[in-house]
Amino acid sequence: MTAGQRFPADEVRHPWLPVLLRMHALVDTGIAAAVRAEERQRGVRRACRSGCDVCCRTQGDIPVFQIELAGISWYSAEKLEGARRDKVRAGLERHVPGARECPFLVARACAIHPVRPMACRLFTVLGRQCAEGEDPFHERRSDMLAPPPGLLARAYLVMLPFHGVNDPKDQETWLERGLVNTLAVNLPTRDWSSLARLMNAAHSRPE
Q1: What average pLDDT score do residues 187-193 get?
Q2: For 108-144, how does the pLDDT look when each residue is reduced to its tens digit (9 = 90+)?
Q3: What pTM did the predictor assign?
Q4: pLDDT band at 50 (very low <50, low <70, confident <90, very high)
Q5: Where on the phi/psi map is residue 160: left (φ > 0), alpha (ψ -120 to 50), or beta?
Q6: Across the chain, what does the average pLDDT equal?
Q7: Does residue 206 sit within a domain?
Q8: What Cα–Cα distance (Å) separates residue 151 from each residue in 31, 61, 165, 190?
Q9: Range of 195's domain?
Q10: How many structural domains does the chain have?
Q11: What whole-number distance in Å separates Cα of residue 15 and Cα of residue 123?
Q12: Is residue 63 part of a domain?
């Protein structure tokens, strides 16, 4: 696992959290290496950068796994503070399932960036930044970074024990048959009102 943001005390309290962080670090490392390879071979740079939020407002299909939902809930309820916390909670309360704009988008930035879903980490555009309303996945597929071979499988192998799939043969079956996909839900179509209530409850608890 590469160096990244860690939460030592929380990792002790939540046994699933080190698994989530390890899975995300694996993906981040693989994508970073793939971007460097594209820069060397094709001379193109990563378009995604701070303040670029087109995909956060236009993507209607963002798979998020159960362990990632746990991470998002934990981070939102226990780590967000101040105005950012208030804005996320308000966004969750008014979010209509199916709305494309991510409820965790605050001031053109991801408020839960350390625990953003794997799908967001994989969605990488090369070359020019996305125009308003553009969907590069369909409109300029050649500019979408392809995940390195085997990266997703390695990430899934880290995650599967969280779901009780520990036997290597069973894990191989899950990967071969695409059963891992059944563990994900779609972020934009999810009802986030329960997380808003959790944030309210956590905020009102005495220290």
Answers
A1: 94
A2: 899 999 999 999 999 999 998 888 888 888 888 889 9
A3: 0.91
A4: confident
A5: alpha
A6: 92
A7: no
A8: 9, 20, 19, 27
A9: 8-200
A10: 1
A11: 28
A12: yes
